[in-house]
Structure prediction request, 323 residues.
Amino acid sequence: MMLLNNHPIGLARGSPFPEGTDHFPEDSVPVCRACPTGWVVVDTMWLAFNGLDVLLCTIGLVACERATRKARWSIRFHVTVGLSMFIWASIEASQSLGYCWVYLNLRMFTFSTQLPGFSAIFGAIFGLGSTLIFAFVPFFSFLYLGACIGWLAFGAVPSSGTENYGTILDAVWSTLQLSSADSWSTDLAKPIFVDVDGERSWVLSAFSRLYFGLSIILFNFILVNSFVALMVEAIHYRSHRDAQHFGHMTTRRASSMLDVEFSTRASVDTTASQDPPDAMELLMAQSAAIRALTEEVASLRREVRKEASFVELDVPRVRSSVL
Prediction:
């Protein structure tokens, strides 16, 4: 419930005065702003044809909760508080704006999960290792929760001095203010925490400043941390693949040299009785060639061992220091 003094919506819908009569702004009564009829119809059709979206959202929340079990306690606390605030904002928005706004946010989330390449991208991220699960899943969850809180809360609370109130532009601008913790230093949007009379609650406002300030720091930390971890995992995968390639190459070369040596010995044994001087010279030349190839294989194996030792020892140390 909110008081709309001389507001076009308040005069058009819910006004106690008949059209054509004179009235003053102070004669306005509190009205409840509802969603347009078209939005309700569209959301009802979405609900009828896509009833599985609620189930998909539930599965997404369960997957997020399972991923946070492997995370640290600070990230678990952040997810819990963020989800609680999202539920609170959804209840407040559903009371003042109706069910369609809450369902619209659910549709935004489920639509993003159905984008082309979404499953492939997350599968590739999860395939890089369990160390990235605690970084990427909470990051995107916090990002979605922050957008929903900004959309719902600032859609339910009117903006001070904003002409585009109730539009997508106003909701996006309020969301940006919420994410930058700048909504309490300007008059373009009211704070998310207000009491019944519309006055600011300084205790809740201070808590919201601290919470969203820490959220921004954690967002940036997780984003940078995830990028560095992704680069380290990519380097580790490339080094491991190169080491396997060198190992297979040296194995094939060693087996081919053994075949050459066995065939050379067989040919020398057959030709030694026929022409001993020529057989001895051929044996010496082939022995020198085999020794050269053996030294080359040994050097390649030493390089492979060095590469493997770097992959097994240095990269986990770098990954642990980063994460």
The mean pLDDT is 53. DSSP finds ten helices and no strands in the chain. The chain has three domains: 1-33, 39-192, 234-322. Residues 39-192 form one domain.
